[in-house]
Amino acid sequence: VLQQLASFQEEHSYPPSIRELTRRLNLRSPSTVFTHLEMLEMEGLVERSQRTTRNWTVTGGGYRVLRRAA
Q1: What residues does 57 pair with on adjacent strands?
Q2: Do 66 and 2 form a contact (C-beta atoms < 8 A)?
Q3: What are the pLDDT digits (tens) for 37-54?
Q4: What global pTM score does this model have?
Q5: Which of 13, 35, 49, 60 is within CB 3.0–4.6 Å of 55 for a Cys-Cys bond?
């Protein structure tokens, strides 16, 4: 989920909606993606803005994790 979120942001210069992430991950349930995003938020890897529907973004810590995994 973290990788797909970062990838979408880099491709489009804005974060994806939950449904777009669901499609990119070939999942059926947006609630599954939402649960993963909430877990990533608790770990400080993503953050949520209340101002928009495309409100999940990767934090600096999230990008560090992705660089280490590459």
Answers
A1: 47
A2: yes
A3: 999 999 999 999 887 778
A4: 0.89
A5: 49
